[in-house]
Amino acid sequence: MDEKGIPCVILLTKVEKVAPELEDNWKTAFQNAKVKECAGKAANIIGISRNNVYPVTNYEIEVEVDEDLNVLSLLALRQIIHLSMDHMENVKLREDGNDVSESAEDVGSDTA
Asked: Where along the chain is composition biased (Acidic residues) (predicted)?
């Protein structure tokens, strides 16, 4: 979260550069040790939770759509939408005079 309480995420792009073996099976990107290490480093540098770092890859030379490749981006987008919706709900609760604890705001990344 930033100082305004807005959830932050990192899109870790070009994961195929650190783990070329993923090009054959994108479904294992979240379990790949090299990707986990990079995600942890990025989270530490920015100062956010590791579960708010999403590995994605870019279409660079592909000429056909790869469904497995799209899944990474779609999962990241879905989590960003969930975080945004949770944040807006917390903003509304605060505006209505309800107390929103810090832990309730941090839960946003785990609600998907």
From this structure: 98-112
Per the CB < 8 A criterion, the answer to whether 74 and 9 are in contact is: no
CA distances from 70 to 43, 46, 57, 77, 78 (A): 23, 26, 9, 11, 12
Dist. CA 76–CA 44, nearest whole Å: 19
Question: What is the three-class DSSP state of 55?
Answer: strand
pLDDT tens-digit profile of 27-55? 888 899 999 999 999 999 999 999 999 99
Counting as low any pLDDT under 50, the low residues of the chain are 103, 107-112
Domain ranges in the chain are: 10-110
Tokens representing 1?
Answer: 């979260």
Distances (CA, A) of 112 to 49, 51, 67: 15, 11, 21
pTM for the whole thing? 0.75
| Alpha-carbon span 52 to 63, nearest angstrom | 30
